Amino acid sequence: MNDSYDVIVVGAGPAGSTAARFAAAGGASVLMLEKDRDVGYPVRCGEAVSHEGVVQFIEPDDRWIAARCNRFRLISPSGQSVIPRLDGLAYVLERRIFDYELAKLAVKEGAEVVTKAYVYDLMKNNGTVEGVRATIKDRKVEIKGKVVIGADGVESRVGKWAGIDTTTHIRDMESCAQFTLSGVKVDEDILDFYFGEAVAPGGYLWVFPKGKDSANVGIGISVELAKQKSAVRYLEEFVDRMYPRAAILTRIAGGVPCAKTCDEVVKNNVLLVGDAAHQVNPVSGGGIISGMIGGMIAGQVAAEAVQKHDLAHLVEYGKRWQKRLGWRHEVFYRIKEAISDFSDETLNNLCESGSRLPDEKRTVGGIFRTALWNRPSMLIDVAKVFIS
Amino acid sequence: MSRTTPLMIHIVPGKCDFCGCCVGVCPEDAIELLESNIRIIDERCTNCRKCVWACPWEVIEFHREGITNLPTEVSLPQEYPPSF
Ligand SMILES: Cc1cc2nc3c(=O)[nH]c(=O)nc-3n(C[C@H](O)[C@H](O)[C@H](O)COP(=O)(O)OP(=O)(O)OC[C@H]3O[C@@H](n4cnc5c(N)ncnc54)[C@H](O)[C@@H]3O)c2cc1C
Ligand code: SF4
Ligand code: SF4
Fold first, then answer.
1. Which of A97, A259, A95, A247 is nearest to A165 (CA)?
2. Inter-chain CB proximity B24 and A156 less than 8 Å
3. Is A253 in Cβ contact with B17 (below 8 Å)?
4. B53, pLDDT greater than 50
5. Are A159 and A273 in contact (CB under 8 A)?
6. pLDDT at residue B84 in the model
7. Angle, to 10 degrees, between the axis of helix A364-374 and the axis of helix A344-355?
8. DSSP 3-state assignment of A336?
9. What residues in chain A have per-residue pLDDT under 50?
10. What is the 8-class DSSP label of residue A216?
11. In whole angstroms, how large is the CA radius of gyration of chain B?
12. Is the confidence at residue B80, as pLDDT, over 50?
């Protein structure tokens, strides 16, 4: 390890590794620091991604694919289910291996990676960031970097130190718990989503298969609605009811910032990517692929700025992100705001009318349209999703 | 911001999963999270309770009377030595 780099990446999740990879590929000298002893562990994730998302970055590999799903099932508060068609394939990953592979791709491009390296502050000169302060094993070190990429996840503090407000509003933070169960019967090719006040207020509960007799069963609920009862208690109730005999092999807690992208993602030579920048689909809470897209753009822009000797070029990152996905997340956020007002009755109606549709019309859009047809008063609810 | 009341936020030792959800909602940058250690930064905390509500594990407690006698730092038991 040197004492100076072009680009320092804080955090070795999917967003950080992808940023490091593309910055190095663009010709920058890159150091990635990870506070944990291990890249990719512990896994705080349901691990579902789309095939189209993954292949932008890496060739699908059986070593990190636990299940292939081509359907998803929405289960209403009354227990009725509807199976919309899924255009394309979804994978349930083994993120422990997947994240490792992403880090290896960064190393292959020339990035250096150091684990057990906790970044506790930024080096600053008149407000301009010039590097990081870190504890590596037991030693305190200062490392200079022209550009610092904050990829430090939901617990991000790098942005705050650079002067960016990254606090997630309690309405938008999904408080999560997940158990990985073994000895359970699950459909290997279906992703299940449970909705409703009693099951998961302001969020949803998922059952994602991980092979034949294993599944990630998890929940995310809005912190605003978690004041009286926490995520883990909802999850325990569900698992006791549905899988009373299952072995729980892993228990994890987590948080997902289901918000719009932070107003600022570039400041004082710091770029934010992934969860740290709230680059998460605000409806689904999926953040693996969108974080990697953010990481890729940030890595490319950082390398360009370094090559040009022009750090003012870094503002390009915010523009390119907004054009690629940022605007879409804003639309999704409006949809989320409308859906979160849906009553259990509305959800029941959606599922019921959707389940009566013929196969080819059973898309998410089709379900909304039919529900409308059957119950015009829902027009107001659905209009809220698309208008405003 | 300076606080005139005592610190009322307490992280129950040994129970934290180090997931970071509380850090993400803290408006004051008042929580420090390491691989297997977590700490409320007393001087910054305003007792707003957002972290208490956010914690999926119910590991953070609110004590109106103040927590001056309780330890605020947690770490894993000996078989999992902290990494720093
Ligand atoms: C329960 C749960 C289920 C989810 N399910 C899905 C899903 O099914 N599909 C999906 O697409 N997304 C899902 N997500 C979201 C997804 O996990 C995240 O969006 C994704 O991991 C974000 O990647 P990242 O690289 O930004 O951050 P992370 O993967 O969180 O990586 C951040 C890294 O930074 C390190 N770090 C933090 N602070 C420091 C520091 N100061 N110094 C050094 N290193 C530091 C951390 O240790 C960590 O390794 C889920 C999230 C949760 C919590
Ligand atoms: S009470 Fe508020 S200020 Fe204090 S640590 Fe919790 S979230 Fe931060
Ligand atoms: S206190 Fe709770 S929310 Fe904070 S890191 Fe620990 S388990 Fe997660």
1. A259
2. yes
3. yes
4. yes
5. no
6. 40
7. 110
8. helix
9. 385, 387-388
10. E
11. 12
12. no
